[in-house]
Amino acid sequence: MWKKCRELLGYREMIKSLVRRDLRGRYKSSVLGFLWTFINPLCQIIVYTVVFSRIFRMDIERYYLFLTVVMIPWVFFSSSVSGGAMAVVSQQDLVKKIYFPREVLPISFVTSCFVNMLLSFVVVLVVIAVSGNGFAARALVCLPVVMGIEYVLCLGFAMVVSACTVYFRDLEHILGVLMMAWIYMTPVMYDISFVPDDLLAVFRMNPMTPVAVAYREILYYKRVPDLGNLLWAFLVGILSIAVGAAVFARLQKNFVEEL
Amino acid sequence: MKPENAIEVTGVTKKFKVYYDKGSSLKERVLFKNRSRHEVHWVLRGIDFEVKKGESVGLIGRNGCGKSTMLKMLTRIMYPTDGTIEMDGRVSSLLELGAGFHPDMSGRENIYTNASIFGLNRSQIEKRIDAIIRFSELGEFIDNPVRTYSSGMYMRLAFAVAIHVDADILLIDEILAVGDAGFQEKCFEKLKEIKVKGTTVVIVSHVMGQLESICDRVLWLEDGRVRAQGSPGKVSKEYLMEMEKRREDIIEQEFCQELKQRDAIKQALSKENAGIDVPLHAFCNKNAIREGSQEVRFTDCAVRNLDGQRAVFFKTGEKLDFWMEYHADEPGKEINFTLNIARDDGIYCFGTSALSGAGEGASIVSKSCGEAVMKVDCNSLQKGRYLVEIGIIGADGNIYDCIHNAMEFRVKGDDAEMGLVHLKRVWKSDKYLFSPNKAEELIAEGYITGQKSFAEYYATYVPARMEYEIKLAKQCASAPDKKMLVSGYCQVCGCEQDFQLDFQYSSGEMPNYRERLSCPGCGLNSRQRFLVSTVLKKLSQHPETKVYLYEQVTPVFKELQKRLGMERVTGSEYISTELPSGTVVDGIRHENAENLSFADESFDFIVSCDVFEHVNDYKKCFREAARILRGGGGTIYFSIPFLCDRQENFRRAEIMDGNIVYHADAVYHGNPIRSDGALVFWDYGWDLLKDIKDAGFCDVYMLPYYNRENGYLGDGVQFLFVAVK
To answer: Can you give the C-alpha Rg of chain A in angstroms?
Structure first.
């Protein structure tokens, strides 16, 4: 296991290259180019603001903020899992011709989504400052921790999913549907207090719930999140990495034959 | 895993599932269970080989024999079904160029990406980036997006990166076939550089020239197993011969098919037409074209070999018969047959008619049904495909029937010749005779009798040969373990072998060619092989002759006894001073060369390998040898270490009153029956030849032999001594 980690460390340049290539290539040949990384979330926020304050009125103050601070981390998770499914299949040329530890592929995909999230957060922080909601320094300190936990969670899932998709191509589409349902099982669009008691158990099982709640606590309520809740997410994250790594290692042996 | 190996492959097998219709979605797997039916295809059925550190090995074989699969497994892209692969060192593989190239990024950026995929970190790439850009020769284009590159530029960039990734083990899969000649040269130079640095290289290629210039060893994979291993020259020749044989087999099969089809048409003929009006395609080539009045017409034709069978392949020089059958509506006409042969590229080779040169008054009168044959005793055609046109003409030249492209045949070539025709020949160069038959390759006609004739010989031949020996010595010194294989033709075994060359018995920088270049088949080294093959040749020319050897336990004796039989070959060893000559101890006969126990004139030939420098009184030895030889032609063939720059014989040691007195440092050579070796008593010079004559021989000379093909090397020339009574 440690040998694998060391090997991956040796390939960090490749991970960096792939992430760079993905970010650069995403908006290449478009006029606005890299600016789209910022314009995208900004536009999202503008649309939410207009819709939720003028048309679909929600009882929550500054609903657009309430929504965005969880929506962006959610997009990181959902794109990691559903997009990550194709991480290996989409690079099959590389996989079939060159040796490198295959784990590099899901790692670089998730990292690239992570970087996107970070850049989108820049916009969010600007908007929070401008809107007048303000920040709580103590709470902000916890932000990297939450981000770290979410990263681990996404990576674990991405590993399992990317390895399995090689054998079952359907998985990509199944996950798309799953994510669509999953967002409603996470308190993204509503606060956790809205959930009736009999369904709370389901919500508690969802590892993204404490993560979503934590983001909201830090950025909207400006409170230090309940780290005990986060422990559950952390455990699931570690477990998912462990399972993910093991599953990936086992399945990757026959990648070339299946691709 | 042994420490000197870089790669160890043991018992590796690999199977692939070949799906008839792969169901890769969940629905298909669940609903259509049948769809996932597959056939198991075993690509590799048990491969074992080892590659030492610094060695370079080539893999050859037909397409689909598993070479690329083997490389992929060495790269760890795939894993074997069974067996183990162990590798020691960093592995870099060039299975495909330009992996990971992004078309919109510039060449320079892609170098970083590509190199990082090979496992280099940033600082390592920085160190190499300039060398890579320079090697690729792309100049200012390096900063343009790769999308705009031509395929040649793409390849240059990809190769430039791949070759600068310092690896301990480099695996290359057929990518060296791309690129223009200049760039390929460059790539090869670089590969050789890498080899010298000690990188282990495994390369798959179909181009034999590439393999011969880079590889120390070649593996031939066939049917999932290693079919042959050895020096590139030998294995690639075997491989090419096998491919050629397969091609020929396919052509023969097709020919048989064609004959069957023709027979089918013939069967379908109605009774009346058979033998009278046979459609063209029942007996001729598919492309045959017919013209003529058809009053007398062909009904069948064939090219036959010496057994009278239809055949499609002939060797140069073989017998060939062109047979044809005809039918005449009105018999009694005067006819003549014509035959023309052209090669398939249109070159006209030969044409004649039956009556040409037959003289006045010769004529052929047509019967109702008849036949004609043109018999060729010994064809002089070279390798190629030939088309035959046959015709029947009348007395005034009118054409009755003429079929172009009626028959075709192929000639199997000999690598020794090229061109259109074969000429029976023999080469002579000064005193040397070379015949195309390998078994008689080197027969020296002249001989050396003294310093003057030697000096002449030396000046003419030796300097150029020494260049080659020095080059070979360098190669051997830089090979792993300082051992290498040199391919050549062993005259004793009668086939191609890989002679083993190393630095055993060597006194310095040059290997001792005389005592090495040993053949794995017969176990004899260079001087032994020439001696044995010369003696065998001579003795087979004179059956019933007997030969005596001064040895009995050595490979030379065993080989001669095996080939000539126990009755003709007698041997002995010098076992101990006390025994009288003639006693047999444990099957070994003891003889003292100075006092042999044989009767006068009891042998026709004597053979001695490096014995006479170990005797105390050589003149007595030679007198004894002369005594036991038959008069009028009895010959002794012997080898001794000989220094060509010395006139007098120098005595190194002497036996006086039973004790050994040394006049120079004691030097020992190997002794087959005693581990303490045999003391050298004499260093011989040119005076030896005269002394031998005085001992009772009428003709004494040295036969120079030197031949790269047969692995006879050493100091520019080697000698076999011959003395005739």
So the answer is: 19
